[in-house]
Amino acid sequence: MENESPLYLAHQKGRSADRHMKSRQYDLAVSCHEKASELIQQAMTLTRYAKALESLELQYRYHCKQTDIIKAKKLQDEIQLKVAELKKKKKMERKAVTVTEQKDHELQAAILRTMEEADSLLTFLRHRSERRAADNDEVDFPPPLPPSDPAGGVKLPKDEKVVIEELRTVNNQLRDFVQQLLAQLDSSRREVECLRARLRMYEDNGLPDLAPLELPNFDYSSL
């Protein structure tokens, strides 16, 4: 029957492929075109007319070409989807980096504030110690007994003023060390941001947007 001829079935497969393309079902569309090309080859074995064979040959090439075009279109969509996902991921990473940098700044401010408070406290203790020393100059107190050392020696007690000066020295050393760490952190952050900017430039310019593929229409009226 005519409705069961290879050529008729090939035309059905071609129309099915078009419907699948509209819904972006690329694999199904490719399968339909591949089946259509097989049916066209069968139809070519059923006729000896040169004009009919020429028309069938054109249809066969059309379905083969459509198969390649659809595969390329599928790959294009997959690439664009990956690029969109990558850009979204990078945007989220940049947002997370901004939050981290904010926390770093807050931590730096807290460290510096703590050191300033320590300086203020040491200054207060030093002034109080000096006032006490001035007040006690007129009073002759007996010196306290030094504590015994387990090794048999005697440990001399440290004067309050000496302790305060030692604390001030330690605090200054700590300040210098923290300032060095903060400078290194700031330098590393600038270097990382520079690398991120270069990476974003490569991502934005390295893969241009692909133009949509146009699917040609075959005119069957010449059959």
TrEMBL record:
Name the Gene3D superfamilies on file: Phosphotransferase system, lactose/cellobiose-type IIA subunit
Q: Where is the segment annotated Disordered?
A: 133-156
Q: Which Pfam families match?
A: NRBF2_MIT
Q: Does the keyword section mention Coiled coil?
A: yes
Coiled-coil region(s): 164-205
Q: Which InterPro entries match?
A: NRBF2, NRBF2_MIT
The residues covered by the Nuclear receptor-binding factor 2 MIT domain are 4-73
Q: Which domain of life is it from?
A: Eukaryota
Which UniProt keyword terms apply here?
Answer: Coiled coil
The protein in question is named Nuclear receptor-binding factor 2 MIT domain-containing protein
Give the lineage.
Answer: Eukaryota, Metazoa, Ecdysozoa, Arthropoda, Hexapoda
